[in-house]
Design brief:
Helix content is 50%, strand content 9%. It is built from seven helices and six strands. It is globular, with a radius of gyration of 17 Å. The protein binds glutathione (GSH). The site of glutathione (GSH) has 9 residues, from helix 2.
């Protein structure tokens, strides 16, 4: 199995999930500028050109981070990394995965966009993202993890995306529960090993 990634981007969550599941995998780095890997053109892996992508041993390729996370949890964790399909808890988990993927991940993507000017980014961060951080912070003030007291792949995704705000000048230190969550996540061997494998400096 191969995970295609680019250091510091949204493939970290997939890597955390693979490690939590105890699944062996190889990492293949994608150069965003050239869209190439050591294997050749990344567009041959996925025409979308986005990371993450997971290549299974049978050659099948899965894209879309939130979908990769569900595949890993469903095929490799026996209900440990996501609640069982069909249960009410599963839909809670899917709500979070979708929220992180859409409102948070793609919200944060605005802050990295070369097509948005600096003043608009500041307005967007204050007028839009701040509300999302506050919502997550209020939830984490009452819950150790997104699903309460149990870790799930959604936490790895949340951790992944919440590593980005300081890179674009957003200070999260006023969100005490988010800070605690980030520190808690960084106690997990899966998170430490994934950061190390991507060559990420301490946050
Ligand atoms: N819909 C995709 C989006 C993934 C995505 O936004 N990936 C970014 C990195 S976080 C990317 O590959 N960007 C390529 C580029 O900027 O050239 C998913 O949820 O997995």
């Amino acid at each position: 199995m191969k995970l295609y990634f680019a250091a510091g981007s949204c493939g970290l969550a997939s890597q955390i999930a693979l490690r939590e599941a105890g699944q062996d995998f190889d990492l293949v780095e994608v150069d965003f500028k050239t869209k190439r890997t050591v294997e050749g053109s990344y567009f041959d892996v996925t025409p979308k050109g986005f990371v993450p992508a997971l290549k299974l041993d049978n050659g099948e390729i899965i894209t879309e981070g939130a979908v990769i996370l569900q595949w890993i949890a469903d095929t490799h964790s026996a209900g440990r990394l996501l609640p069982a399909a069909g249960t009410a808890e599963r839909y809670r988990a899917l709500e979070w995965l979708n929220y992180v993927a859409t409102d948070l991940h793609k919200g944060m993507a605005v802050m990295f966009s070369p097509f948005v000017d600096k003043a608009s980014k500041v307005d967007f961060a204050n007028g839009n993202l701040a509300e999302r951080f506050a919502y997550i912070d209020s939830h984490l003030a009452k819950n150790e993890y997104l699903l309460g007291d149990r870790f799930s792949v959604a936490d790895g995704y949340l951790y992944n995306v919440l590593c980005w705000p300081p890179r674009v000048g957003i200070d999260l230190s006023r969100y005490a529960a988010i800070e605690q969550f980030m520190l808690r996540m960084e106690q997990r061997p899966s998170v430490r090993a994934s950061r190390e494998a991507e060559g990420l400096a301490p946050r």
